[in-house]
């Protein structure tokens, strides 16, 4: 899958999250123990599209999907995590 399609899938997933879940996602992104770490200035007050770009530029396309899935499951957004995986891998 091309990076543009992965970015679109991640951005679409963010659009489906409630404001509260999006804020929880950003908070969890900041507090991940594994590297590379994302700095607060790159996350706070950013739009959903900007966070998509942060994920892809920090973790690469494949890594961005894996990190997003991990965080989504950690904040009990399992349906959104499943949808993201389906949209980026073609697995149904």
TrEMBL record:
It holds the Pfam family PYRIN. Transmembrane segments: none annotated. Residues 1-91 form the Pyrin domain. InterPro entries: DAPIN (IPR004020), DEATH-like_dom_sf (IPR011029). SMART domains: PYRIN (SM01289). This is Apoptosis-associated speck-like protein containing a CARD. It comes from Dissostichus eleginoides (Patagonian toothfish).
